[in-house]
Every structure is written in structure tokens, then in C-alpha cells.
Design brief:
The protein has helices spanning 6-31, 35-38, 42-63, 74-83, 93-122, 127-131, 133-139, 144-166, 180-202. With 222 residues, the protein is an all-alpha fold. It has two domains: 6-176; 179-222, no CATH class. The longest helix is centred in the middle third of the chain and has 30 residues, at 93-122. The radius of gyration is 23 Å and the shape is elongated.
Length: 222
């Protein structure tokens, strides 16, 4: 089997970033959602948030997994780009590559935390982590802003390399990538209708948390 072209490598790496950062955006959006809406299905929303965060971490781990022989990674793409610098359409490719390699070095503490989490919990169950689950959070600290930074810098790197290679610019984003907001608003609207009907039927005030802006019930206008 032949090896992929540099364009194929760039395209698959960009696709990985697109999917991975979409998982992260979904988790962030649900975490910021009205708790009264999330509590309508706490198991569903909790697992969706946790799963999205785990998949986002696994994506970054995969993109920088140079330990796996022959895998397509960001660093190996940069090596390949150096070897094929003459095939780039424009720009000082070698200077750009050196700049991006330095950025990866600066990002290494975040990458190392993700690597540890992948190796000791997400992909494998390390006995030490099983015996002491809190230890991983301590030695491999990772925040959502850390993940954001990893995706932002990786996306910027890939878009710049693609621009230099084939003159393609733009951003990595799904059309309708925030359509979960529509689903949340339908849940809000249905919950508000339920509360209104409950109060009207039983002549009591709803005492549990209610979604914000219940007065703006979209179902009334549909």
C-alpha cells in the first residue's frame, strides 16, 4: 500500500480537529445550559458531557501520538512538510514549520497531561489509577481552557500549513454545529408548558427550579 499524500495527511488531520473540537464545544455548551433543563434528563446530559470531553481528549492524544509507529500525527506531518517544502505554493515554509514546532513544545505540558489521561484511564485502566482515582487528576491536571488551547493552536497550525500548501483558507466548523441549542430550547419550552399546565390544573405554585424565561413559551406560537 502506498503512503498518503501530504494533502491527504493535512485533510485527515483537519477532519480530526473539526470533530474533536465539536465534541468540546458541545460539552461546553451543555455545561453552560440552564441547570433546570439539564435536570430534565441528568443521566443523558451527564453522560453526553463526560463522553464529549473524553472524546475531545482522545482526539488530541491521537493527533500527537508519536509513540505509535507509522501513525499520522501533527509532528510527522511537519517533518513531511519539511521534506516536501518545494511543493508548497507560497510562503517561507521552513520558517513557518520552525515556528509551529516551537509552539508545540510550549504546548507540551497540556499534551503530557492528556497523554497520561489517555494511557492511564481513557484507553487503558492503569492499576495505580484504579487504586487511587484522584491521583490522576493531581498529576495530570487538565482544564477546559487547556483543551481549548490545544484545539485552537492545532487548528491554527493546520490551517496555516494548508494555506501555504494549496492556498486554502477558512475555519474548521460544522454547518449547524450549535444545533443542540435548538434542542435545549424545545426542552425549555416543553418544560415551561408542563409547569404552566400543572399550576393551572392544581392551583399551586411550582416550587422546583424552572427554566429561565418561562414566559417566552415558543410552543404557544407554533
Amino acid at each position: 500500500m502506498g503512503k498518503p499524500t501530504l494533502k491527504q495527511v493535512l485533510d485527515v488531520l483537519k477532519r480530526q480537529v473539526l470533530v474533536g473540537k465539536s465534541y468540546l464545544d458541545l460539552a461546553k455548551g451543555l455545561l453552560e445550559a440552564d441547570p433546570a433543563i439539564r435536570n430534565t434528563a441528568p443521566t443523558f446530559f451527564g453522560l453526553t458531557i463526560d463522553g464529549s470531553l473524553e472524546l475531545a481528549q482522545m482526539t488530541i492524544a491521537r493527533l500527537y501520538d508519536d509513540a505509535t509507529r507509522g501513525s499520522v500525527t501533527i509532528r510527522r506531518m511537519l517533518v513531511r512538510a519539511t521534506e516536501e517544502a518545494a511543493s508548497f505554493q507560497r510562503g517561507d515554509v521552513r520558517t513557518e514549520i520552525a515556528k509551529r514546532e516551537a509552539a508545540i513544545i510550549a504546548l507540551e505540558p497540556v499534551l503530557e497531561s492528556i497523554r497520561q489521561r489517555r494511557n492511564e484511564w481513557l484507553a487503558h485502566l492503569d492499576p495505580r489509577t484504579v487504586a487511587n482515582p484522584e491521583s490522576l487528576s493531581t498529576k495530570a491536571k487538565l482544564s477546559i481552557p487547556d483543551l481549548d488551547r490545544a484545539f485552537t493552536e492545532t487548528e491554527d497550525l493546520l490551517l496555516e500549513m494548508s494555506s501555504l500548501y494549496e492556498g486554502v483558507t477558512g475555519e474548521l466548523r460544522f454547518l449547524g454545529g450549535d444545533d443542540y441549542k435548538i434542542a435545549l430550547d424545545w426542552i425549555r419550552s416543553a418544560k415551561c408548558t408542563f409547569i404552566e399546565n400543572y399550576e393551572r390544573e392544581f392551583h399551586v405554585t411550582w416550587t422546583e427550579p424552572r427554566p429561565k424565561d418561562c414566559s417566552r413559551n415558543l410552543l404557544k406560537f407554533i
